[in-house]
Amino acid sequence: MDKMPKWADVILTPLISLILAMGISALVILAIGESPWEALKTMVQGALGSSYGWGFTLYYATNFIFTGLAVMVAYHASLFNIGGEGQAAMGGLGVALVLLYLPLPHWGLALPAAMIGAAAFGAAWAFIPAILQAKRGSHIVITTIMFNFIAAATLNYVLVNLLRPVGSMDPATARFPASTNLPSLTDMAAAIGITWGRNTPANITFLVAVLACFLIWVLIWRTRLGYQIRALGRSEPGAVYAGISPVRITVIAMLISGGLAGLMAINNVMGEAERLVLNAVEGAGFIGIAVALMGRNHPLGILLAALLFGFLYQGGGELALWTSIPRELIVVIQALVILFTGALDNMVRMPLERLFLTMKRTSRGAVK
Amino acid sequence: MTTASDMLGGRSDTAAPAAIELRGISKAFGAVQANRDISLSVPRGTIHGIIGENGAGKSTLMSILYGFYKPDAGQILVGGQPISISDSQTAIRAGIGMVFQHFKLVQNFTVLENIILGVEDGALLRPSLSKARGVLKQLAAEYQLNVDPDEVVENLSVGHQQRVEILKALYRQADILILDEPTGVLTPAEADHLFRILKGLRDEGKTIILITHKLREIMEITDNVSVMRRGEMVASVRTAETSPEQLAELMVGRKVLLSVDKQPARPQAPVLEVRGLTMVDIDGVERLRGIDLDIRAGEILGIAGVSGNGQTQLLEILGGYPEKGAKVSGDVQLNGAPLPLSGRGCDAGQRRRDGVGHIPEDRQVEGLIMDFTAWENVAFGWHDAPEFNKGWLMDNDAIRRDAQAKMERFDVRPRDCHLAARNFSGGNQQKIVVAREIERNPDLLLIGQPTRGVDIGAIEFIHKQIVALRDAGKAILLVSVELDEILALSDRVAVMFDGRIMGERLPGQTTTGELGLLMAGITDTQNTPAEAGIPPETTHDMPEGRA
């Protein structure tokens, strides 16, 4: 069995998919009478042309890294966790409770405490679908998506009835104590004498996310637990033969997955909003599925894919601001990217594989 | 092989056009040349055997004949007329019928409904059904193909289901019948009946192509035989003019030892003692009904039987992972210490630490993770072993070194531990599993179907390793549906039927006929092992008879 070289698999395939998606997006933009070239320029300028744009791109990317990693860990155990949205929302609740009710004098203390709160709430929200899947065989896709709705309704109730400050009309918590505010990337750059960005939401959580990518790579490919997760994901009867408990590993993988999704709240709730508002996740849980798919369920791929989707988010926002292209069209463009890089992956991959095979055969035939 | 058609004569007139003829068929999948310039001529009214190791290209060739694959080059002639078989419908119209190894029947349809499936004569079923009923009656009378037309297929035995497949082909007016490994799931008696049917069909002028890897069947029933090796047709000969040894040599490309070379066993202290092992599965079906077994150090106990009579459940329970929801009772002792059959201690990992190795029945589903590399598979099941771990992390370098050494010692090819398991041939995959389990030096080794889908060369090697482990004083439980393998390797043979041990025999003092009767659930009282000289505590004939 010959396969195509690894670089073609991990770089060329998504790149071609991306170009195809961009080509069709260009046609759509042409069809509504705008210039695709101008649109692209606006997007690149808005998302990557300034440190301000980069600040937003990195902020969005941070969200997507966490939700992408969440999907990835579950995927390796052959579980499709589409509950990232709800798990991230519950993570936000965890962050809010920790920061509002624990006296934390400095962000250096507040960050680990809030991370524990976020991960614990996210993991707890994933635990019920996990145990239902492991013990009762209730399909995790169904249960996690139902838990998204339950999370949204629960949060609504908690914000309106329990956490809303007396007299406020806004269904949101009070601001977190100023001592717990995370340093932004702008502050951190300034500390080492670099002027970078201004008023951007990107904060230290981006570095936490990059660190998480590395740790998850170690977990999946270097530890015994990762080995067991991957074995269970590839063959459940095999795992049973090898003495790996499907119930235990299913639950653990989902706890890690939910914890990662929950950790996203460090970025959007603690780092950016500095209070918990309604709908704080804004669909990042679902974008994580596309990010994991495009990133080939590898942390490095997820990092790159998250940056791309961060760019699309920020660039899309700019597009709506500066051109007459409606905001809905940005969703169309994002959908096309998801469609081509995720769902239609084989459309590009299979012809490419054939191409490499013929190339290989002709070169080998020459030797024979 | 342009001379094939001249060389081979059937029972009918050799001057008539061959029933089916292939000229220069080639087919490649990617870089793999599955069939290379195959030529074959099968005279009308003959049984033609096609024999070859796994991966020799037999199934590809038959799939081309049935229209599943399009050949890259070459020509197919049916009855002297060149035709292009683009799909199975064309093949059926050309009079080709196929009986697959895995039956393609609708389990909850009746026999009649299955037979007319796809060839109904109109929107209403009744006319087709009554027509089929008539045809079926006639076929049954002509060829001993008796099946109750109104029985639901899932209630039929495997042998009868196979008859339904043959009837399906005949109902579609097949003149050429292709059977792919037809006896793999049959008892010897059922296989004999099948052969009688096939001979009857041949005598009526039908042409039969029989694909198999069992030399005995080829010798027994075919008129001519073609041998495939690595995608090429290396020989076509009259069966009467060849011998099993010659065919084996042609298949492998070198001389092969067909029998296993072993000394008499020197059994010592008992290692495994099983008493009254019973298992009821989640649906309330009793799968094991009071199994008693003993295996001593330094002996191989073979379990013969048609698959599905409880062998899988026995292996799984001893291996520490009974089916989900199953109720297991009885007493199992390993080296005098009781093995837990349920609850906390009943765990495949714990069994390994207790000294039970296990080569599972299906290496592709259980024994290996096909997407894992060879080195990752060498740690499979042993991933907790201290030498494979370094604190929190797995010591991948140590695993790779161990894998490379094992592949060296067991001659796994290609010798590349970074290759995914699915990229090895069946024999080399099995060698990885065998190396992993045997080199742990277990006190008791459970073996299920050690050579299923394994080529002859690797079979020879694996058999040697099993015998060597026995000679090192280990106890071995061998389950196989290949009676020849059981007889060649075992020191004692127990026959399983319907969750019971029907009797025990010594391989040198029994016949396949006798074992076949036991496999079919027919007990007799003669020739008990006690009379054959085995200590009485190891005999487990079931005097109480069948329910």
TrEMBL record, chain A:
It is a multi-pass membrane protein. InterPro entries: ABC_transp_permease. It comes from the Bacteria. GO terms for molecular function: transmembrane transporter activity. The chain crosses the membrane at residues 12-32, 52-75, 87-104, 110-128, 140-160, 202-220, 240-264, 276-295, 302-323, 329-348. It is found in: Cell membrane. GO terms for cellular component: plasma membrane. Signal peptide: none annotated. Keywords: Cell membrane, Membrane, Transmembrane, Transmembrane helix. PANTHER family: ABC TRANSPORTER, PERMEASE PROTEIN, GUANOSINE ABC TRANSPORTER PERMEASE PROTEIN NUPP. This is ABC transporter permease. It comes from Paracoccus hibiscisoli.
